[in-house]
Amino acid sequence: MHLEIKALIEKIIQRDIVLEKPKDISLGHYATPAAFALAKEEKKNPMVIAQELALKFQDIDIFEEVTAVKGFLNFKLSNKYLLDSINKSLALDFDFAKGESKNEKILLEFVSANPTGPLHIGHARGAIFGDALLRVGRYLGYDITAEYYINDAGTQMEMLATSLNLAAREYIYKEEVEYPEQFYRGEYLFDIALKCVEKYGYDVFKDESKQKELALFAKDEVMQIIISDLADLGVSFDTFVSEKSLYKDWDETKSSLEKNNSLYDKDDKTFLRSTMYGDDSDRVVVRDNGIPTYLAGDIIYHKNKFDRNFDKYINIWGADHHGYITRVKAAVEFTGHDSSKLEILLSQMVALLKGGEPYKMSKRAGNVILMSDITDEIGADALRFIFLTKKSDTHLEFDIDTLKNQDSSNPVFYINYAHARINQLFKKANLTVVDVQDENISSINQEGKDLVFQALLLPDILEEAFAKRDMQKVTDYLHGLSAMVHKFYNEHRIIGESSEKQYLKALSMVALSIRVGLKVLGITAKEVM
Q: Per residue in 138-173, pLDDT tens?
């Protein structure tokens, strides 16, 4: 709607404009300060220019009123335009706000947690943000592939094998075991150890020749836990790429780096000249023992990504990877690709409370808060919504007890209650959406028309949220729209009024926006509360 109105105004006044939504909707649905820009060119008072411009819109039927106020040009949409927009939107039903194909291929990589244990609550934030971005982008018409990069090479795999052996000694052989601090701990390792015994026999952990095989077995088992936990949260991936499988391409990747003079040797190590692209120091890609570093694996992976010819690449990383951005972008350039196509978004950690106190960590996972525990306790919908109420790169703290409240303190309940209230009004009137589809809305009051306008903004909100990679814009919008519903419900009688059907038609538009808005966030709106 915003783009449609903006294009029309620009056509009439024959210049590009900034189109805003006034905070006070009584001033108009939209406003532009175009007169101020013209005032400099024409050397006239902007208020005079605004009044002259307003006259050009007198016969445009989508506007009920166009007024000049203190140099601003304010536009109030007509009842006819709002009604036409409602009719088109309701006819689309669950395809309302859906975009046409953008003809842009995007590779979105997110989560990519090491396959050494179940996902913790910090991983959940990146998972939910990535999945919401994926859903909104696809809904708007972007061709997006969701990818998980499995870090299954390097020291963490050796540590997983050793941790599994320690767990087996403790749980199966009943030995006294002391875990080094950096090793993995948790009851999930006991379960994997038992599965190893089922497959390989009781003495498998005493067989040195089986250790690499056990590490691979453990990695695969952990990945199944991760995939299952993500599925419970409504998150899935199109492709999985193994770091270990990519190292066969290291020689080829190294050659491409050498051709661009991006590598040099020093102290028996090979360095990447990442300072050429803003890094604070050059980075080691091959150790003095000849083994490629973790960065080398990332270079191979990003070359692999870019060789697959997407139009854009988006990575969602934990905030602790901030310093890693410049070296990876440098590597992309050194392999002959355009690093401006790589967008890296950061996801901050989460502080979790329960009843105002820090949430107790899980012994099952080695003193972390398991994502699956929180999903089980409050449900996937509540967890998804609350994680999207702040920008991903900002700190998030919430109390899970709040998400169990059946009142306005719980944003998920508050929004679902607004949707259910509208459904209840239809039931009380013994009507359906079909029964009111031919109604006009000219007789409803201004608050009702404001509700309609707000409901029709969802397409603009989704476009802006995806463009700015900010899903908070969607959650804020849904919360604000629901607040308008509750206020309207409490202040106005609907059932039994002469304009009952018109109000119900307006509210059916609001309910559709709530349903679709929640759906693109991976949440199902409740019909009854």
A: 999 999 999 999 999 888 898 999 999 999 999 999
| CA–CA–CA angle 167, 170, 173 (5° rounding) | 110
Query: What distance in Å separates the CA atoms of residue 64 and residue 81, rounded to the nearest whole number?
Result: 9
Tokens for 446, please give them.
Answer: 């201004």
Domains of the chain, start order: 2-77 (3.30.1360.70), 155-230 (no CATH), 407-519 (1.10.730.10)
Residue identified by tokens 């080829």 is 252
Q: Is the pTM of this model over 0.85?
A: yes
Q: Give the distance from CA 230 to its chain's centroid.
A: 14
Structure-block tokens of residue 198: 């089922």
Q: In this structure, which amino acid lies at residue 51?
A: Q
Would you call 64 helix, strand, or coil by DSSP? strand
CA distance 228 to 233: 9
Closest CA to 306 of 469, 109, 103, 102: 109
List % helix, strand, coil for the chain (3-state, nearest 5): 55, 15, 30
Query: Is residue 364 pLDDT above 80, yes or no?
Result: no
Q: How confident is the model at residue 363 (pLDDT cuts 50, 70, 90)?
A: low
- From the number of C-beta atoms within 10 Å of its C-beta (0-12, 13-18, 19+), residue 342 rates as buried
Distances (CA, A) of 190 to 27, 43, 482: 66, 79, 47
